[in-house]
Amino acid sequence: MPTVLITGANRGIGLEFARQYSSGGWHVIATARQPNAELDALGVTVELLDLADPDAVAAFHRKIEAPLDLLIANAGTNQPMNGDTAEDARAWQAMMMINAIAPYVLARSLLPRLADAEGKAIAISSGMGSIGDIGPGWVPYRTSKAALNMAWASLALEARPRSVPCVLLSPGWVKTRMGGSGAQITAEQSVADMRALIDRLTIEDSGKFMRRNGSEIPW
Ligand SMILES: NC(=O)c1ccc[n+]([C@@H]2O[C@H](COP(=O)([O-])OP(=O)(O)OC[C@H]3O[C@@H](n4cnc5c(N)ncnc54)[C@H](OP(=O)(O)O)[C@@H]3O)[C@@H](O)[C@H]2O)c1
């Protein structure tokens, strides 16, 4: 039975990944900040992890002893919206940890377990992290996803000797708490598309930043 580790799996896109991989027969290790009834109902393995906590993030790999077929670094925040005040600046610092630094530290420490399974490392980025396709507003979020993109592209280089593909995916504009009810697609559709793409990824795709249909996004 293949194993997938999904961060931020208690709601939104992460919960939908947990649902779909679990019903597809995978062993799902789902991380959340708090115990969660919906994850318990799925019968998946739940591990508590706050990505804002550097000690917890750096130590987490010790909990994963078996080969890991797939890591989905999904957890993320879009707050603060702006960088105007000292309070915004503090929240922006925390966001950089949650959205960019923690995914990299976690993935790097799990590379041996991923290599054991010839596994793949996926980060859920965003088109808003693209400098080549920049738009207005949401500057903290854009910078955090651009930083995630650089960290994951660097991870791809580091993971190449172990043949672990490291790929950044944009899920589209998805109806979740973050995406809002006016978003274009459901989490079910986004995750189904991303799962199909993840299945097809090879080492040749490592270091790419892709839409869920597999087309590449400008950096
Ligand atoms: N929805 C969209 O349209 C869209 C578009 C592009 C990219 N994305 C990306 O897709 C990913 C999932 O987003 P979503 O739409 O599913 O958002 P969501 O419904 O807001 O879910 C965010 C998830 O991240 C977790 N999280 C936030 N801060 C955390 C922390 N400090 N430690 C651990 N977990 C934390 C949340 O846990 P709590 O419940 O504990 O807060 C929750 O599980 C994110 O990386 C997001 O940037 C989303």
Q: What structural class results from the helix and strand content?
A: alpha/beta
Fourth-tier CATH superfamily name: NAD(P)-binding Rossmann-like Domain
Strand content: 5-15%
Give, in order, the helices and strands.
Answer: EHEHEHEHEHEHE
CATH class: Alpha Beta
CATH topology: Rossmann fold
The percent range for helix content is 40-55%
Count, helices: 6
Largest sheet: spatial strand order = 3-2-1-4-5-6-7
- Mass-distribution shape: globular
Q: Unreliable segments (pLDDT under 50, ≥5 consecutive)?
A: none
Major sheet details = 7 strands, parallel
- Which ions and ligands are bound to the chains? NADP nicotinamide-adenine-dinucleotide phosphate
Q: In total, how many domains does the architecture comprise?
A: 1
User: What is the residue-averaged pLDDT?
Assistant: 98
Q: What's the Cα radius of gyration? A: 16 Å
Distance between the termini: 35 Å
The total count of strands amounts to 7
For the record, the CATH architecture stands as: 3-Layer(aba) Sandwich
Short key terms for the protein model shown above:
single chain, 219 residues, alpha/beta, Rossmann fold, 6 helices, 14% strand, binds NADP nicotinamide-adenine-dinucleotide phosphate
Fold and architecture overview:
The chain has one domain (3-211): 3-Layer(aba) Sandwich (Rossmann fold). The model has no long low-confidence stretch (mean pLDDT 98). The N and C termini lie far apart (35 Å). The chain has a 7-stranded parallel beta sheet, sandwiched between helices. The longest helix is centred in the middle third of the chain and has 31 residues, at 86-116. It has helices at 12-23, 37-42, 54-59, 86-116, 139-159, 187-200; strands at 3-6, 27-32, 45-48, 70-73, 120-124, 166-170, 209-211. The protein has 6 helices and 7 strands; from the N terminus they run βαβαβαβαβαβαβ. α1 crosses α6 (187-200) and α4 packs parallel to α5 (139-159). α5 (139-159) links the parallel β5 and β6 (166-170). The radius of gyration is 16 Å and the shape is globular. It binds NADP nicotinamide-adenine-dinucleotide phosphate. NADP nicotinamide-adenine-dinucleotide phosphate binds at residues 8, 10-14, 33, 50-52, 74-77, 98, 124, 126, 170-171, 173-174, 176-179, 183.
